[in-house]
Each structure stands twice: as structure tokens, then as C-alpha cells.
């Protein structure tokens, strides 16, 4: 079978859409989604969703270790292990839920809860590593970056509650794009130095703008849902009168 046959991928992906209530708007979705589907098709059976979640967490720990070693051993070459860590994290984090649906063994709410917890733990470890590495005068930037990215995660969960649609992408820049961008920044930090300081400054401004816009939109969604629920309640009362 041709794994990259467009018709087979489209047909199989369409078959799954009834089970996956996660919409994607990120720039790389047209490349990423067929790649994930291909990986699901060739993945060994012993790699269960929970094992893939654990693999994703190992990637997170490698990122933390890379920053820690670069700081404690005063050698930026160790930062490059963080690039490998991000690749491992993407592999596990992107595939754990997808392969559960592919194998028809989903645990929707268990998976959602586990995903939220793992995202938060990953954010804590990555931020802690970054905090240890960066110069003390700029550590506040790490705190603000963690708060802003945590805000993004929180917004995705609130949007799911209010709209019943789970989207992990705040517009065209999703977790995959953020990982790639961070890898490029880390490579530049190793080669040039002080790049992470500039990135965290710009990143905080960009994330703050995105979060403020998304918060406004979410409040509008909430207001619209409140109005709809009041309308339905009024109609039900009028019918019972």
C-alpha cells in the first residue's frame, strides 16, 4: 500500500473526523496532519497512547536537562540537546491522542485531562530550565513568558467549555510552530549568544497581544451563549405556560 497516497490519507482522515473534535488552524497543519496519520499507520502496537505521553514527557525533561547542563557546565553546546528534546516532545505529545482515535480506543475525557496536566507540567519544566540558564537580570522575562503561554493553554480549555470546539492553536501559530521557532532560537543562542533574551522580550509582547484579543473573542462567545440559553429557556417556559 502507498502510505502517502493522497486518496487513502484523505479517506482515512475523513473517517476519523467524527471522533476527533479538535480543530486546527496552524500554518503547518496540511503537512503535520498527514504526517501524524502516516505515523499512526506504521506505529508498533506496543506504543500505546500512555507510553507516547510518557515519551513526550521525556522530551520535556531532556529540554530541562539541556538548559541545566548549559548553565551548570557553562557550555552552550548542551543547548542543542533541547532541540532533540522538542522533537521527542512533539512526537509523543502529538501522537498520543491521535493514535488512540486511530486504533478506536479513545478515552476522551481521560485523554483531555491527562493532556492538560502534561501540558502544564511541560510548561513548568521548560520554564524552570530557561530560568536557570538565563542571566538573573532577565529572569523576570521567563516568568512573564510562562504566564503568557499558560494563558494560551487556559484559553484553549475555556474555549472548549464555552464553544464545545477544542482548538489548541491561537490562530496560525500553534504548538508545533512554537516548538520549531524555539528550536531555531536555541540554535541561534548557541551560535550567537543572547538571542533568548531578545526572543523572550518579543515573545512576551506577541503573546500578550494574542491573549488579549483571544480573551475579548472568548467573552463575546460567552455572551452569545448566555443569550442563546436565555432564549431557549424563555421558549421552554412559554410552551409550558
Structure description:
The protein is built from eight helices and two strands. The chain is 77% helix and 2% strand. Residues 1-21 have low confidence and may be disordered. Strands 1-2 form a two-stranded parallel ribbon. The chain has helices spanning 6-16, 29-42, 49-72, 80-102, 108-133, 139-163, 175-191, 195-240; strands at 22-23, 166-167. α3 (49-72) packs antiparallel against α4 and α3 packs parallel to α5. The longest helix has 46 residues, at 195-240. The protein has 241 residues and is mainly α. It has a single domain, classed as CDP-alcohol phosphotransferase transmembrane (TM) domain (Four Helix Bundle (Hemerythrin (Met), subunit A)).
Proportion in helices: over 70%
What's the overall geometry? Answer: globular
CATH architectural name = Up-down Bundle
Helix segment count?
8
- Sheet with the most strands? 2 strands, parallel
Write the CATH fold name.
Four Helix Bundle (Hemerythrin (Met), subunit A)
Percent of sequence in beta strands: under 5%
Question: How confident is the prediction overall: mean pLDDT?
Answer: 85
**Count of strand segments:** 2
Low-confidence stretches: 1-21
